[in-house]
């Protein structure tokens, strides 16, 4: 709500906001700034660029502040007090953005800024969420293969259709962004949430480049965490599958008990096969621990949410207009 009143006090409300999360991107920012401002100037519509500094430890913040000085007409910078992760950085950008169409992209130039007009055109055609998928994804197979598998599992479990969940070049209508902000979720996945709220979603094909400089901030561990957020945030299927596995195992064990009982009566007790028993036990132990883990994933998120701590803290907003 505060963002609304803030927007109303301004004389010039931008049509388009471009929101970018930034974490240690000093090597990419100069080129990003150059290419992005060129694109924005060509749009010929009132626009703003909202950069969120997600607690960068390099020179990123200083660079971004200098861009506010250079282009006070379009640049705004949200400064976090520490690192809260990509999605919270986008969330803060959403809270601050004033445009009617809000576009997100990455700071590392993997999403070419030149594709933004394509998304805006699709929004103008009447869609409220425009996603994108990468034409020839410039990542190693170690990234593309797991992400393809994860995409499939995610779609089966959550029922959310997205051709390319990892592509952050997306456009959202203001009402969708407001719903996302007001959801108040802490561990969330913004494109999925948007897809969930969207009435008329669409997707366009975009180019994809290799990271301009630096290395990805995501390692395997972070990727797994992100996908847990996706699964637990949008579905109870993992819990239900687990219940069903439990029931199936119980039924099978019951059959085994009956068999052993009959065997004991007619053939006598059996003593062999002790290691088979161990194998089965260890397997089941694994299943139980996994189940505890899945329950824990949900409980942990409930706990996080219930504490009602602030999702992030904005130290300052640097802007001139
Ligand atoms: N990012 C962020 N906070 C983080 C990690 C990443 O704001 O804790 C930003 C990063 O600066 C970039 C975007 O999120 O603009 C995507 O990050 P990255 O390129 O590392 O991820 P990948 O493209 O490998 O998925
Ligand atoms: Mg990247």
From TrEMBL:
Entries under Gene3D superfamilies matching the protein: Spore Coat Polysaccharide Biosynthesis Protein SpsA, Chain A (3.90.550.10)
Top-rank lineage group of the source organism: Bacteria
A cellular-component GO term for this protein: plasma membrane
CDD domains cross-referenced by the UniProt entry: DPM1_like_bac
Record-level Gene Ontology MF annotations: undecaprenyl-phosphate 4-deoxy-4-formamido-L-arabinose transferase activity
Spans through the membrane: 241-262, 274-299
Swiss-Prot/TrEMBL GO biological process terms: lipopolysaccharide biosynthetic process
Cross-referenced InterPro entries: Glyco_trans_2-like, Glycosyltransferase_2, Nucleotide-diphossugar_trans
Stored Pfam families: Glycos_transf_2
Keywords annotated in UniProt: Cell membrane, Glycosyltransferase, Lipopolysaccharide biosynthesis, Membrane, Transferase, Transmembrane, Transmembrane helix
Residues in Glycosyltransferase 2-like domain copies: 17-177
Protein name: Glycosyltransferase
